[in-house]
């Protein structure tokens, strides 16, 4: 396993926190993993050393999240992409990289591919958030900024929604709680990533991407939106993995590594030849109810 170190680099808006696996003798294209919002690079903490055995594997905290300094104003998806390019430059990585994006991170990966196509080799997306206009309005209303409340009600609402989407068979409440703290590090700016996501036209940018793109349709809150990406990018494939929901990178790290390597390590022109869903990814979706928003009563989300 590669060893992961944590460090900071100077970015466009202050310091950017990064987790990086540095193998003794890198032999494969560097991999940059881009987290969802409002989370941090901790989402990939177990995957980085596995992928980092033979390549540099990187996960920045995007500006304003995790331990990275925030920009002076709410950014757009393209701004996050430029921030990560600056981060790569600060690390001295000047050549091509592979990208793995998760939800908002998928959008950033696609935007980065358009902005700097010569810097990106292949893209793996965890979900493809392609929204209708009605959904954009609904998402903006649901994920709008809410002022902190003295009784902590704003934290309780976020916890209930987080629990609903993360608690599944094989996962404990303690493990969900450990991940939840990352969702709070954005503080009062936690809505910035969602704002950027709902402003971004993923379908338009994805249609311009000529690179190989593997899209995982995970069994989470974007399970209904992701199939809209079918055929949008000329060299793309959607892999249905309903058994993988939020937290799957931690829960099924070995299987995620297997799928990632099958895609990233394949020969040019055969990028999808060996890509297949492992048994952990073909199980039932949990929660079984599809949709992007948690139920008011989350008791039904508790695994038996």
From TrEMBL:
Domain of life: Bacteria
SUPFAM superfamilies xref list: alpha/beta-Hydrolases (SSF53474)
Keywords on record: Hydrolase
Keyword DNA damage: no
Keyword Hydrolase listed: yes
Entry GO MF terms: hydrolase activity
A Pfam short name: Abhydrolase_1
Domain AB hydrolase-1: 30-143
InterPro entries for this protein: AB_hydrolase, AB_hydrolase_1, AB_hydrolase_fold
Protein name as it appears in the record: Alpha/beta hydrolase
Organism: Sphingomonas glacialis
């Amino acid at each position: 396993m590669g060893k992961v170190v944590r460090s900071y680099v100077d970015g466009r808006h202050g310091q950017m926190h990064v987790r990086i696996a540095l193998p003794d003798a890198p032999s494969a294209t560097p991999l940059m993993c881009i987290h969802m919002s409002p989370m941090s690079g901790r989402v990939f903490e177990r995957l980085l050393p596995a992928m980092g055995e033979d390549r540099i594997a990187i996960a920045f905290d995007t500006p304003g999240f995790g331990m990275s300094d925030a920009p002076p104003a709410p950014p757009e998806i393209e701004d996050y992409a430029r921030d990560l390019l600056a981060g790569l430059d600060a690390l001295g990585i000047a050549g091509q990289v592979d990208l793995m994006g998760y939800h908002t991170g998928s959008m950033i990966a696609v935007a980065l591919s358009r902005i700097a196509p010569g810097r990106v080799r292949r893209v793996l997306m965890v979900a493809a958030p392609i929204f209708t206009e009605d959904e954009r309005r609904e998402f903006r209303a649901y994920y709008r900024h809410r002022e902190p409340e003295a009784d902590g009600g704003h934290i309780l609402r976020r916890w209930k929604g987080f629990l609903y989407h993360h608690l599944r068979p094989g996962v404990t409440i303690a493990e969900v709680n450990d991940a939840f703290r990352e969702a709070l590090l954005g503080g009062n700016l936690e809505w910035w990533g969602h704002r950027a996501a709902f402003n971004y036209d993923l379908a338009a940018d994805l249609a311009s991407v000529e690179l190989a793109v593997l899209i995982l349709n995970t069994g989470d809150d974007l399970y209904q939106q992701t199939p809209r990406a079918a055929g949008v990018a000329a060299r793309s494939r959607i892999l249905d993995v309903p058994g993988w929901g939020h937290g799957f990178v931690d829960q099924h790290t070995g299987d995620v590594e297997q799928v990632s390597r099958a895609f990233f390590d394949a020969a040019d022109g055969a990028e999808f030849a060996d890509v297949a869903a492992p048994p952990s990814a073909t199980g039932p979706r949990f929660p079984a109810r599809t949709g992007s928003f948690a139920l008011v009563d989350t008791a039904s989300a508790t695994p038996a």
